[in-house]
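Regression report. Comparing outputs from two consecutive submissions.

Submission 1:
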Amino acid sequence: MEWRWLRATVRFDGAFWRRFAELGCVYGPEWWKRGSPPVIAAVIFSLAKAQRAAVLRNQRQVRGPQRWVREQWHAYRVFAELARSVTEAMEQWGPRPRPLELAVVGREILTEALAVHRGVILLTGHFGSWEVAARFLGELGRPVNLVMAHEPNPTVRAFEHALRTRHGAQVMYSDRSVFAALPILQALRRDEIVGMQLDPWGPPRASADIDFCGRAASFPLGPFVISRIARAPLVPVFAVRTGIRSYELRVSDRLQPTTAAETTAAFEATVRAYEALVRERPEQWLLFEDVWRERVAERGAYEMVPQASGLRLR
């Protein structure tokens, strides 16, 4: 067990490298923060064979087939964007955050959602730097809860938890229990902000298939169902990186489904907004797993509510 833990610690996504990265991101000189991410991205790109192959397939689906060199370049740009985003996210969540240039497009939509006082579900994805966007939530004057799964590498879980809660945010782990939706509903009833992610993974019975960049992909239904049950507004927000410490938060819509049909419509509208953003800036789509993997489970004709959210099928 100790040997396995040591191997996981020194793996490229392990605790040793995360802590080393934090030192550079927080305490390193400016030339290091600006110049090291592309180099580190190139090293990881060359070593992480499975992740590189998944990014190549995802980018090919979004951009269409291209020459080998161009496909490799586009895939590397995803790794480079990740390295830049991780650098700035660690800096922002660390003890010495630097000033950010942050423009919010659609701020009035978010203001109107908060004025309902039924809590707000902010739905985002692994795009640009969602962690920088989460850091911004603390400025909205409401308690913030981030819903996420545990890190795949167990050696970094304590480190990431401490990092994300350093400035007052609370973390809810959605993979801990079948009753994971209960604290989410309680937070919304306290008029708090709940940040959730919209990304095409998870168990088939917790998702629905929808056309995405020309091919069916599965996206989670949980946030939309919870929005309907809690009568809480759901607001898609995506962070676009526009330069060094420069971001644009795009608030696309305010959705508040009250019926099954409205839940489906909200789901489709949000996926369409996400798709448009991915097509606009595919290099900032930071997914390192196959999005269009084969779905082996069949769904029935009834409405599916995620078991992972602690809700029944109805």
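Submission 2:
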Amino acid sequence: MLRRLFKESLVYGLSRYIGKFIGVFLLPLYTAVLKPEDYGILDLLATIQLVSAFLIVSGTDAALSYYYFRKEFSDQRPIMISSALWIRIIFSFVIIIIISFGSGFISNLMFGSDYKLFIWITAITILFNSVFSFLSDLLRFELRPWLFTIVATGSILLNILLTIYFVLILKQGVYGALMAAAFAYGTFFIYTVIYVFKKYGAGFSKQWMKDILSYGFPLIGTGIAVWVLTSTDRYFLAHYIDISSVGIYAVGMKLASFLGLVAGAVQLAWGPFAMDIQDHPNAKKIYSKVFVLFSVVNILGVFLISIFSIDILKVFTQPEYYSAKVVVPFLCMSTVLNSAYFIVAIGINLTKKLQHTIWITISAALLNIGLNFLLIPDYGVIGAAFCLMIANLTIFLLTFFISQKYYPINFRFGIILLILIPSALIIAASYYFELKIFARIIITVIYIAITSTYLYHSIKHSNEFRNLLAKVRGMREKRN
């Protein structure tokens, strides 16, 4: 079971790896052309896409995931899937109309300037991307990770190539970046519609619309709360500091997103995998082992990215972006907590207690807003990053305790804390004393050596480790 999850996570993550790999080497070019203010504008526009995506999806992705894997509905999958796509298309057009009519107000509210053209292009991109994301969900449900990777990688490569053309060659700045995304997602919007309607038909069922929306609507509040949680810090920064600080914050988030390569890949594979094995006799043990492995790998990722953040920034950005270093550890930890939440929430999902996700996320969002008011005016980007980490920690803890109430699992937090605490202390000391790269390399080698030794002694008696050793010995014997 774990082998299957690892394999699917690796395949699902392949497209992310390719996109991030290319994005890293294009970052010096982007930061040379786009100023922090330009990055800030793009990041604020991305918040519009985020809230629109939550409203358009309206929990239909979770609903389709639930009904798709129910055996009693297997013969109704074609009409179920096509109805879900029609819901996505209809909701997308509604959002486009609302944004288009309110573009002037939105532009003045967010930027204090006339950027209505940027708002309109963003609205069109929202339609294309929302429908394309439906295909991404569907391919995961169909357990077709390789096709998912091909399609996702194709969209990434096309977007990057168009961005190079519009931003680097034509020097179109923010406008060019927006046009590149619109053309890229528009191409795969067409592919999505053809794929779904050709394979499943273009039928529409009022009953399935009712069932899907009834399941998903309770999650709309959660989606809005997530938007508040992940986006309001940008508005506070723009208001209390300036739009350039939003750009610095966005670059720090980009570094943290490298950590999302592993987290995002597991997250994509986790939903179908967790639902598919729910009836397995050892399901709880499998969930626990996945969580421990996930946490250990990501803590090591947080450590490496954080302790070498200034070196990464010096290689891939310009001096005006180096100050993003200070937010990296907090944003990396936020990324891990946000992804780990999906694993510990398995009890809520399996028992269909999704109403708890609403008040949990809303509580965290309100906490984040309150902390933003208190910290951002005095601490700027550091305050924003710290607020986000605390809010994601709140979601994680509340979700864990509620999920344990309905579906208790032993997640073995002891192992995780013994790795996390030393990592946090070393990162803090490195930042406070501004250690040179040579000292940081030595500390990193020592930390990883001690951690590896501890993990080895923790798992060497497990069945999985013994099976792995047996397979390695078998391969050696076969080679000899």
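Expected: both submissions complete independently.
Actual: both completed, but the second showed a warning that disappeared on reload.
Relevant detail on submission 2: The first helix runs from residue 2 to 33.
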